[in-house]
Input
Amino acid sequence: MKHFIRVAILVIILTVLIGFGLDKVGYMPELASVQGEAIDELFTKHIWVISFLFSLIIGFMLYSFVVFRQKPGENKDGDHFEGHTGLEIVWTIVPLAIVMYFSFLGATALAETRRADPNAYNITVVGSQWSWRFDYDDYEFSSSELRLPVDRQALLMMTSTDVIHSFWVPEFRVKQDALPGEGMERELRVTPTELGNYKVRCAEMCGTEHAYMLADVIVMEVSDFEEWVEEQQGGPSGDAAERGEVWSQQFGCQACHSTDGSERIGPTWLDLYQSTETLIDGTTVVVDDDYLYESIVDPQATIVEGYENVLMPPTGESMTEEQILDVVEYIESLSEHE
Amino acid sequence: MDENKKVKFLSLGLVRGIVFQVIGSLAGMGFVMLIRLLMGLPAWNAEPVWVGGTFVGVFTFLIGVGAFSDWFKWAKGEETSDHIEADPSQPKWAKYYNISYDHKVIGIQYGVTSIILLGMAGTFAMIFRTELAAAKLQFLDLGLFNSLIGLHGIVMIAAILLGIGAMSNYLVPLMIGASDMAFPRLNAFAYWLNAPSALLVVISLFLGGFDTGWTAYPPLSARAPLGMQMFFLGVYVIGLSSILGSLNIIVTVIRMRAPGMNYFRMPIFVWASVATSIISLTATQLIALSFQMVMFQRLFGMGFFDPANGGNVVLFQHLFWFYSHPAVYVFILPGLGMISELLPVFSRKPLFGYKWIAVSSMAIALVGFFVWAHHMFTAGMEEYLRVPFMYSTMLVAVPTGVKFFSWVGTLWRGKITFPTPMLFTLGAVSVFLLGGLTGPPNATVATDLHLHDTYWIVGHFHATMFGGFMFPFFAAFYYWYPKITGRMYSEKLGKLHFWLMFPAFYVQSLWQMYIGLLGMRRRIGDYDPALNFDNSHLVITIAGFTIFVSVLIFIYNLIKSAKQGEVAESNPWNSRSPEWQLPTPIPEHNYTDHPFKVTGEPYDYGLEGSTYITMSDK
Amino acid sequence: MSTADIRSEYKYKLGTNRLGLWLFLVSDAFFFGGLLVSRFYLMGYTRPHLEQTLGLIVTAVLLVSSFFMNRAETAMAHGDQKTFLQGTLITLVLGVGFLIGVVGVEWQLAPFGPNDGAHGALFYMMTGMHAFHVLTGVIFLAIVYRNGRKGLYTAEKHWAVEACATYWHFIDVVWIFFYPALYLIGTVVG
Ligand code: HEA
Ligand code: HEA
Ligand code: CUA
Ligand SMILES: [Cu+2]
Output
């Protein structure tokens, strides 16, 4: 009996040390959404159960190592003791109860993250290799950054133009994959609670530049948000080239094409216009308006030498005629020629 | 002296196999090109030509090494023998490079191949860990980084599968008192399938790599470079090997037990092996199917997972995880069996609750079939599946818990000693506990929404795999070393190995979990410096290198002690298991000259005058 | 007699072999099961447009072949060499007939290719993988037939014949699931 009392004390000490130790270190990033609250609460419970069960087993083991070790010079066998059915039943039933209870908690917390606000406004989140686009469906404009008003629920519909991506803002906790294909839109609800800047971090392996598939998230006061919406609704102003720059950001062209001559997945746009390109079939072309237009609408028609192994996605299909022409204009503006 | 015999290089099965594989692959490529020409297509198209060619190459390897010879004879109606006589012109060690039907030789072949793969995968890890030690890209590009993590993952998994093959091939027949496996030819065939396919998996690195991770989800894997196909093909063939290997184990256990060896008197490791084999035998077919479907999508444009062509990307994940979740229990069950096997020996006490432990292995294996979708909680699968799969997943904790509590019960009031195998066994218990306990937070859907695809998960599965496989595997190596080689390993180096690896592992895994929670995603070659992960990553890298060095010490110990170690007694651990009652080295036909009867319980340590087996010398 | 001697007897080995074969079939069944599941996952209650009469014919051919296979095996068990050879040969011919029907005719008649949507992909994959098994079965039959003619099997020792028969029936059973899944269930599209 005295053995058990000592171990019990050891286990309690260990549990408290581990549990509070972890709590002190702080293991979660800042929390910034309503949905995350239920998740953090459940996770804290998990951490306590882990601390306890780890201490329980390790406590018994450590104690045995010290007290039940073979003393020097001794060469004896331990007690002959084959098992105890009662004990076995207890340690089947008790964990069973615990895991059932935790599953129940998990289901409740899941329901909490999915609680729908009928006034939630709709944003379609489009992932493509390797950028995000946010279509504000209620206001009919798109953006390459996600701006959200604080304390209002947003219903994000995830979709993808190519491979699987995953929408994750660590501070919001919740995560959802964006799947390609018709009828494969998946929803995620987020109600931000803290003003500030965050980042969407693509959490599903989606190819070479997966590491860099980020987008800015800005949580703002409702009034600031409304102001921003109004600004955007007019569409980007300025001349064609300026608009083209905005489109090329929104549709993720710049994930692969640099505008400063640096090396990325696709050819740089700097000084592209009027330059001479060699294609994989050995022919050369002088880059003009038509060539640029065709390269965007039907990327596989002409493939530049050295890029045989990387496919440019058919993003052009989801752009309007004017948007494409704007982008062409923008590419031209990046060139000394003209 | 034996060693002085000249070896004719080409007469080694392995060398012949590789030569045949190269020739066969080239011939196969030519053949595919010919067919393409006949079909009116241009002869060269890298993908079908490589896939077709290398597929042929796998079979020519097997012909070269001689794995088909007996079956060809059967087809011709000729008689064959269950044993292969060693070529007397070759030194003794040459049998390990040739085809052999002896389960002990095959077990060692598996074991050594496993260590070689472990070293390869570990080296990949060291390369990408060095890259990750600081933010920004230092010396790898993203494409290569991605291929390296995927290869690290899959080669490690292959190393585990082979390591399990090693343990169960070597030990199961010995433990149940059989003279060999039920199907010795099939056993050799299953082993040799691994060599050409491991080669294919590694070749993928030179054919553009694959940037999908080991899970190879389409549609990304449908667009990845040619290396992807080599990965699929290699894993496909390794899968075939584990199906045939596990079939053999099950039949052996059912049909080849010694008299009196009823199911509840078998050494507990045998139970674990059977539970494992049930999973490998059946579920492996589904990863094969899923990979084959992607391969065919790439080769023939079949649109299984192509949303633009009637496919559905989620289907792949269901098929893939239907194998790959149960597979993680394949990785650990033999290891947990090993723990249950060694604890009684070194605590000099019966295994606490033998029947409960035996049945819990079965329970884990069976429940494991119904939990696969917990990898897909955020994947956008059918909504209504999330909650049921959460409940089923959590259930696995119950039989696993039974094992833990029973292990504690075994230690309690024992007379514990701490030689190297015991250290690794105890290390395994604590590390697997950490890994197991971090499972339930992933299993409750809500928390997984945060945890999925972060380094938390990376920490979780390294802990389960180290605790459930690596530590027990090393324990087994040290434990049976004197029986296999006749010499004792160096206890000093063994302890050094443990005391480097054990703390380093905790550091590695805990730090992975920690940065994972804070927002570190999986499979990224470069991380946002704003997150301040540099120091943590440096710590993980240093810990990883420490593990690497400790394993080098292990290998040095194995090689050196085989020649210079002290000569070992035939039963240095004073174990009751039948194989220890045999002379060292174990006779070629095991018990044929030492038949035994089971007369008692396997783990009755501390019971005066009890016996497990009574061996009669013929 | 010692255990080792009992174990090396033909009768004991036969039992071991049977168990091994059955386990192999269980394993293989999972592969076909996976295909069936994929078929319903992707196509639901629709099916490809196929030649119904041809489907009926090949199915009948395969079922009849199983009957002859069974006859051959029972004949061998009774030592009736002649009926055994006859049955094996007929099975083999019917098997080849099935292959011609599916691969040689149905594949050519089908108004879609393997790259035409889920229907195309699944139809060619399911029939293809099944045909591959039939092909291995046919090769097995040919070996058994040849060795049978050499007189290598007796009423007591004919494991190869039994294995071949079991495998053949298994392939037949798989088709019994595949046939309705492809030809009968659901409404026609594509
Ligand atoms: C050896 C391998 C192994 C083992 C044994 C396990 C064991 C478990 N795993 Fe793990 N897992 C992996 C290997 C393994 N896992 C891998 C490789 C991945 C990632 C794959 C990838 O994406 O690349 C993964 C991912 C993974 C996920 C997906 C995470 C994600 O990607 O979002 C989940 C989710 O449920 C999960 C859960 C579990 C659970 C519940 C167990 C349970 O079996 C654990 C049971 C054990 C215990 C709980 C401890 C002992 C029990 C007690 C002391 C009794 C009392 C306990 C309680 C009351 C809780 N694992
Ligand atoms: C058994 C399984 C196993 C083992 C042992 C390891 C061991 C290690 N793993 Fe691995 N790991 C996986 C299985 C494993 N891993 C899997 C499945 C993945 C997922 C991949 C994916 O996402 O697709 C992964 C992913 C993974 C990641 C995440 C990558 C990412 O998502 O970006 C990281 C990062 O730190 C990592 C690190 C390490 C390190 C530092 C070790 C170290 O412990 C390694 C130590 C070195 C050795 C154990 C080898 C020592 C051997 C020798 C010295 C012998 C040399 C001699 C000869 C050649 C004979 N691993
Ligand atoms: Cu998109 Cu990762
Ligand atoms: Cu799992």
Notes: The first helix of chain B runs from residue 13 to 38.
